[in-house]
Amino acid sequence: MSLSIVAAVLFSALLHAVWNSLAHKVDDRLVGFALIGLMDAIGGGVMVALAGLPPAGAWPFIIASALLHVVYNLLLLASYQLGEFSQMYPLARGTSPWVVALVSVTVLGRDLPVTELLGVLTVSAGLIWLVLAGGVPGRKEFPAVGTAVLTGLVIAAYTVVDGGGVMEAPLFAYAGWMFLLQGPPLLVVAAIRRGRALPGAVRASALEGLSGGAISLAAYTIVLWAQTSGALAPIAALRETSIVFGALIGAVFLGERLGMRRAVAAGVVLAGVLLISLPP
Fold first, then answer.
1. What is the mean pLDDT of residues 39-48?
2. Whether pLDDT at 142 is above 70
3. Angle value at C-alpha 154, between 148 and 158, nearest 5 degrees
């Protein structure tokens, strides 16, 4: 990858951690995620107006990606409601790279270089350490941990889909329609769940929700641009430096206890992600 792509993906990782921390900070997180969906729809509409329709071959990727992103947002919302940001965020983001590596071997029949194998084992060890940092999870923690891991599986799925999709259409045509389709479902869910209380909840969460949505839109558009280079695996791995940014944000700005064990565990996950991204 060129230096410009590396720098862009690192910047995207920072933005990603920022918008996730904003989403976690909102009192009514469902409304916060709905406002993020609103920004996705607005930003996607602007892109669509500029780029128009994508080629026919891109539509399966766009539809699949939009559906996966809706599921991802709902799972992420649930994980933040169940657990702490500084634990749920690294679990969700750290699960994806080693799942992609395992699927490439068991499903796609590709060889796994030694560096990637070491990366898979390192990420797995870091995740186990992260989960156990505060002690062995009891029944109370299982829903939060399970939801975060499931979120990571969905991240792996849309990463693969988008890696192929950006090769089928111009960037703004692909990204625009994907954002435009994924935004409205969250608004509908919030409207149904909150009913008449929705306007007041929107006013209370507008700043964090709308700013988080704008940051999210920018962060993932940067990633999609980087994926047009074809370097899908290294970019997917490099994005997970957001794990470190997320742990620091949780400790410094959200008042969550980082602790040496959790900090080291996040670093181990990051080391494994970087090993996966190394060339064979």
1. 95
2. yes
3. 145
Contacts of 203 (CB under 8 A, 6+ apart): none
Other Cβ atoms less than 10 A from the Cβ of 135: the count is: 8
Question: Closest by alpha carbon to 246, among 23, 74, 78?
Answer: 23
58 DSSP assignment? G
Determine the angle formed by the axes of helices 3-25 and 232-239, rounding to 10 degrees: 40
Coil, helix or strand at residue 109: coil
Question: 58: number of CA atoms within 13 Å, CB side?
Answer: 21
Tokens of 250: 């949780």
Contact 235, 226 (CB under 8 A): yes
Domain boundaries, the chain: 3-277
One-letter amino acid of 260: M
Taking only the tens place, the pLDDT of each residue in 90-115 is 777 777 777 877 777 777 676 767 88
| Cβ atoms 31, 73 nearer than 8 A | no
Specify whether the CB–CB gap between 211 and 56 falls below 8 A: no
Cα 131 to Cα 71: distance, rounded to the nearest angstrom:
23
- Convert 7-27 into a string of H (helix), E (strand) and C (coil): HHHHHHHHHHHHHHHHHHHCC
CA angle centred on 69, ends 65 and 70, rounded to 5°: 120
Identify whether the C-beta of residue 92 lies closer than 8 Å to the C-beta of residue 246. Answer: no
Task: Tell me if 13 sits within 8 A of 180, measured CB to CB.
Answer: no
Tell me, rounded to whole angstroms, the distance of Cα 211 from its chain centroid. Answer: 17
Give the pLDDT band of residue 44 (cuts 50, 70, 90): very high
